[in-house]
Amino acid sequence: MFIHHVGSLAAVRAALKGDVKVIPMPGATGSGQGTLGTMSGNVILAASHQQGLAWDWISWLDAHKQMLKLSTSAQGQLPVLTSVATMKPFSTDPALKVAVAAESYATSWPGVVGTSTVVNKDWEPTIQSAFEGQSSSLAMLTTIASDLSGR
Q1: What is the reported pTM?
Q2: Other C-beta atoms within 10 Å of 77: how many?
């Protein structure tokens, strides 16, 4: 078992000759599920001197045609538009259906100093170590919490 991003799905399927199943990430929510939203996104900062241009970019990117292109690219972003999420392959591929359904309860990474370190360096080896039984779930969570706090 391992955590993957939808962008890695094609490579994982190729490496494992299609023998891949996807389940929602377990969590401590009332429904017993949990997952993290994407780290990539577009925002307009309040202090920006180019808010109009930033709004133009986000509006363009959030249109159906561009969202479809981005969401079906090698980047592997999940669509944030229902008009795209209800299309193939998101409505027919079982693994993508799990990912799209998880968007309804996904939470974002916290906006703290250690987030980029966890996401870019520590997340994958730390959680994989717990999956493989080389460390406990508590040790994994303690490491990530420590990294997030910048300790």
Answers
A1: 0.70
A2: 16
